[in-house]
Amino acid sequence: DIQMTQSPSSLSASVGDSVTITCRASQGIRTFLAWYQQKPDKAPTSLIYGASRLQSGVPSRFSGSGSGTYFTLTISSLQPEDFATYYCQQYSVYPLTFGGGTKVEIK
Amino acid sequence: QITLKESGPTLVKPTQTLTLTCTFSGFSVTSRTMNVGWLRQPPGRALEWLALIYWTGEVRYSPSLRSRLTIIKDTSKNRVVLTMTNMDPVDTATYFCAHRRDYGEIDYWGQGTLVTVSS
Questions:
Q1: What 3-state class would DSSP assign to A82?
Q2: Interchain CB contact of B111 with A (< 8 Å)
Q3: Mean of the per-residue pLDDT values for chain A?
Q4: Burial of A65 (0-12, 13-18, 19+ CB in 10 A)
Q5: Do B101 and A94 touch (CB under 8 A)?
Q6: Residue B60, CA distances (Å) to A6, A99, A101, B10, B17 in order
Q7: Are A89 and B106 an interchain contact pair (Cβ–Cβ within 8 Å)?
Q8: How many CB atoms lie within 10 A of CB A47?
Q9: What is the tens place of the pLDDT at every residue in B80-114?
Q10: Which end of chain B is more exposed for a tag (fewer CB within 10 A), N or C?
Q11: Are the C-beta atoms of A25 and A2 separated by less than 8 Å?
């Protein structure tokens, strides 16, 4: 199985801050990487696929980059609705695997 | 617009078999976009992928749970059913059904259903 490691596991930030979350794959996955946002007691929603492609309707303050084994998700100016948990997921090979999540909290 | 909704028991006893149904709209069970899977999330923990079925009938399972899982599509209705045998308290989780875009990311999720395993 491909292991996905996210860091940090949590972070505190203020509205307007820029934050970056990293995700590392235990082996190369090219750009078969997605990012999801999950709010408490809700289902995840898809933010980014193909490592850097925004899903329709996702604000442009979200951006993704990377390929191979190292990926990042950046939120350029945090908004109140962005405080949530973020997961990366590889879909290069089965089994599909997720990172452990990064909780973005209000400072 | 694709929507998915999970249904099934909220409480099962240890050793019992769990049967969950995913009812979806916005695509047909016979369409080439019918790639539906199941994932779960124990309370306070990360997401875990369980199984997926393609429109062709091809199925994929998590290797660690393969012996306990069966995923099928109900061709008479827009439904996908997951069964998990020999349930244990560690299987307590919110179970999600989801649509996978071709061989890409998961683009639509159901709301999830919490299943508790307890005697």
A1: helix
A2: yes
A3: 97
A4: middle
A5: no
A6: 25, 20, 24, 25, 20
A7: yes
A8: 23
A9: 999 999 999 999 999 999 999 888 999 999 999 99
A10: N
A11: yes
Rounded Cα–Cα distance for residues A62 and A82 (Å): 10
Q: How many residues does chain B have?
A: 119
Tokens 């945090």 correspond to A78
β B3-7/A97-98 pair status: unpaired
Query: A77, A98, A83, A89: which is closest to A11 by C-alpha?
Result: A83
d(CA B4, CA A55) in angstroms, rounded, equals: 18
Q: What is the dihedral of CA A73, A44, B76, B68, to 10 degrees?
A: 90
A82 backbone dihedrals φ, ψ, rounded to 5°: -90, -10
Q: Which amino acid is at B109?
A: W
The three-point CA angle A30-A32-A33 to 5° equals 115
Q: How would you classify the pairing of strands A10-13 and A62-67?
A: unpaired
Structure tokens at B33: 């976009």
pLDDT at B14: 98
Most A CBs within 10 A among B1, B36, B38, B47, hence the mutation to make, goes to B47
List, for chain B, all residue ranges whose pLDDT scores fall below the cut of 50. Answer: none
